């Protein structure tokens, strides 16, 4: 009834011209009043994960209805915010995804088995949970007339391009994970353009912060090092440790991800998300953590992992230009927050929860012999 009264008020104000006034008045009414009073609905895959759970918090604060799913392969159940309509579903099941995406306005696909190095030795499980899962969610979104689909891709799409990586570079993925991520981008673009769904491709990279899984031996170098050092064990470094990365604090990524779901400027774009300063080596990362933890550092070095990209750093110029991107958290502050969070939860032994599918002389001994 309130909505009808608002509508009539606008009609009367515009002179109630049936051919022009009603259409104009309804547009004004919808854009100003309904958008304020009707809960918008966002769905987040991987909502028990690190990025997905923080994104859910942000939309809950905006007053949106937030739903999400997670298979709990790579997340913690207690990451899921209380107000989320949660489903413990696997993204590879089309019927399930079709059911839970009914009435959704925007989908953020954050779920992924984000195992770049591990994908070289377990390509089946990584591809299933990257390519198959993503295509399933895209299909269900189109079936439910979702307005916009935001795909969280990966810096792995750029591979061995010259740094800093820019969005106009031709992708050169070097491992099954990166290949799979780029394949999902192509599928999203093709299906969205065919069926009329808006899409955006986000490229977050090396995100760190509270809620990141830290008992997983296959990924998350900063979390692994913190867990090891807190357990009075030396960090493990592959190769000479001179690989260079930029690390992005999670809250600096969330504001841009919100924009990608709502801004017209984002439609059809690929956008790098993450800082392009503090380009540090893995050795330097270990040194900063050791200083923060007052830990006597003597890293254990193991041979390079096959296909690992030596230098990986994305330009943030496009995000700055389109959305005024301005990271506020430096590396040391972000790592300090991670340390505090892990200490509050307590350290954990590492869980080898995924099988190595290809075991040979190239498979890292750290995984074969469970050295973490």
Describe the structure.
With 372 residues, the chain is of the alpha/beta class. It folds into two domains: 2-35, no CATH class; 39-368, Rossmann fold. 40% of the residues lie in helices and 13% in strands. It has twelve helices and 14 strands. It has helices at 2-13, 21-37, 50-61, 94-100, 123-143, 176-195, 221-230, 250-262, 282-293, 317-323, 331-345, 365-368; strands spanning 41-45, 65-69, 85-87, 106-109, 148-152, 198-204, 207-208, 236-238, 244-245, 248-249, 270-273, 280-281, 300-302, 311-312. Strands 3-2-1-4-5-6-11 form a seven-stranded parallel sheet, with helices on both faces. Strand 4, helix 5 and strand 5 (148-152) form a beta-alpha-beta unit. Helix 4 packs across helix 5 (123-143), helix 7 runs parallel beside helix 9 and helix 7 crosses helix 11 (331-345). The chain is globular, with a radius of gyration of 22 Å. The termini are far apart.
Distance between the termini: 62 Å
Output the CATH class name of the largest domain.
Alpha Beta
> Which value, in Å, is the CA radius of gyration?
22 Å
Q: Determine the CATH topology of the largest domain.
A: Rossmann fold
Name some characteristics of this structure:
single chain, 372 residues, alpha/beta, Rossmann fold, 2 domains, seven-stranded parallel sheet, three-stranded mixed sheet, 14 strands, disordered N terminus
